[in-house]
Amino acid sequence: MIYEIRHVTAYAYASPVPYARHLIRLRPVARRHQRIDWATIDVEPVPTERGEGFDFFGNGLTRVLIDSPHEGLVVSLEARLEIAPPPLPDATATPAFEAVRGAAFAAATLDPSSPTHFLFPSRLVGVPEAIRVYAGKSFPPGRPVLAGAIELMERIHADFVYEQGVTDATTLPLMAFEMRRGVCQDFAHVMIAGLRALGLPAAYVGGYLRTVPPPGEKRLEGADAMHAWVSVWCGATTGWVDLDPTNAILATTDHIVLSVGRDYADVAPVAGVIVGAGDQRLDVAVDVVPVDAVDEGSMPDADVHR
């Protein structure tokens, strides 16, 4: 599937800001089953300094410095990319979750894709006991790890209400869990907390959903905005599998990966420091348009990030 993406993030400041530094994680990169045809990021006002690179987890990173007074910031992404359907493993054939847990804690590498980085509490995701008990109901002894993760995903979808405005980017998983409501970030954080509490590696994935669903299919929650889901490590053979608890589906060609991290703090699209006073207003507009289908065999295997 070929997509064209336009994403505009606009900040309006209450008073002029004389100095700002920002980290922008909006440049998609090549990954398994994802090829980038082109991607451009425009920043207004024009930065005094700008640099492009990657963070530890291989996400595209744009660093900007603005040292002249400005009353707003506009960051625009335009991109065209191709997604091929990933293979969907047989959930019942994946290893028992106890074996995956043991393998994760025994991992001998600290490269960016190592499960070790996704086992422990992170800045926004702890391992509350209440969430551990909730998640544990999906993992009786000997349960295949992906079967248990899918059941946990489906339970979260059934038990939680998708509702905007009741949480924000700083809401911790336990608060969303107790309210049983929130948005995609909260659904993902709760699921990650539950999996990690059981000793299973789980990563936070930020990206997009297609705006226009296929004919006859229901529009997914989180379209027309940035979306979040979970990647769970299912052992060395199966690897990482992406699950969307907001919609109770496995991520396939409807999901476009922008960034991967331990939680939202690792993948925030715009972060940084400004020198100024007063409030600021944020407006975000996202448009993801499917263009055409693409044959999976055309996708490259080299030079990709997880």
| Main structural class | alpha+beta
User: How big is the Rg?
Assistant: 19 Å
Q: How many DSSP H or I helices?
A: 6
Please provide the count of β strands: 15
How far is the N terminus from the C terminus? 19 Å
Q: Approximately how much beta-strand content do the residues carry?
A: 35-45%
Second-tier CATH architecture of the largest domain: Roll
Helix fraction by DSSP (H/I, runs of at least 4): 10-25%
Domain count, please report it: 2
CATH class of the largest domain reads Alpha Beta
Largest sheet: 5 strands, antiparallel
One letter per element, helices H and strands E, the order comes to EEEEEEHHHEHEHEEEEEHEE
Strand order of the largest sheet: 12-11-10-9-13
Provide mean pLDDT, rounded: 91
Find the CATH topology of the largest domain. C8orf32 fold
Extract low-pLDDT stretches.
293-305
Query: What is the overall shape?
Result: globular
Description:
Helix 2 packs across helix 5, helix 3 crosses helix 5 and helix 4 packs across helix 5. The protein has 2 domains: 109 residues, Sandwich (Immunoglobulin-like); 176 residues, C8orf32 fold (Roll). Strands 12-11-10-9-13 form a 5-stranded antiparallel beta sheet. Strands 3-6-1-15 form a 4-stranded antiparallel beta sheet, with no helix packed on it. A 4-stranded antiparallel beta sheet has the order 4-5-2-14, with no helix packed on it. It is an alpha+beta fold and 306 residues long. 19% of the residues lie in helices and 37% in strands. The C terminus is likely disordered.
